[in-house]
Amino acid sequence: MELEDKIVVITGGTKGLGKALALSFLKNGSKIVVCSRNEDELINLEKDILGIKADVTKEDELQKVINFIKEKFGKLDIWINNAGIWLPHSLSEDFDMDKVKEMFDVNVFGSMNGSRVALRFIKKQGFGSILNIISDSALIGRPMSSMYSASKWAMNGFTKSIREENKNISIFSIYPGGMKTDIFGENKPENYGEFMDPNSVADKIVENLKKDIPEEELIIRR
Asked: Which intervals of the chain form a coiled coil (predicted)?
């Protein structure tokens, strides 16, 4: 896929992997729109990156992003569901289920909302791609991280299913391993020092899209 002048929307695009993706697409000549529910983070965006305040847990707010894209650019080429949160390690029976529900709202329902609004628009215009940033936690069981893994397994099942429903639309599942981002806050895992640079992960995602036949399911590990 040629990325010059492609319109790319990234949820959770103001930091971590989302920001790295925005910069990587920008280097390839794409036009970038990032979404965040934190308005302060949108103020300090790099030049040439547009920011829109939107909460992925609210489908109507993501629909407003689609409306903005349609009015400003007339098309959408790539929608990336990247927004996500993580919970500190704990035994399954000790997790605060209110916090687990908040995580599922973002990781699972947020990605569903983004995919739904993007699919409707992509089907009408006749082209476009969706990337769901999942995690390699969707491929294995991880002790002390059962709830996060469960949210990613849900994302994985949803993404595979919408790919089967929409054979004529490129829908990608991206499974990165651990990255050095602030998703962990003050609760970094013990092996955090071994985690990947999000910029290198973003470049691999972008390079995959540029292939003549990109991998629909891309696993990225050290």
From this structure: none
Shortest CA distance to 11 belongs to which of 48, 49, 41, 52? 52
Structure tokens at 136: 């390699």
Task: List, by residue number, the catalytic residues.
Answer: 148
What is the pTM (predicted TM-score) of this model?
0.96
198-216 average pLDDT score: 98
Closest CA to 133 of 27, 222, 10, 3: 10
Q: Does the domain at residues 7-220 carry the CATH identifier 3.20.20.70?
A: no
Mode of pairing for the β-strands spanning 170-176 and 49-53: unpaired
Domain chopping of the chain, boundaries: 7-220
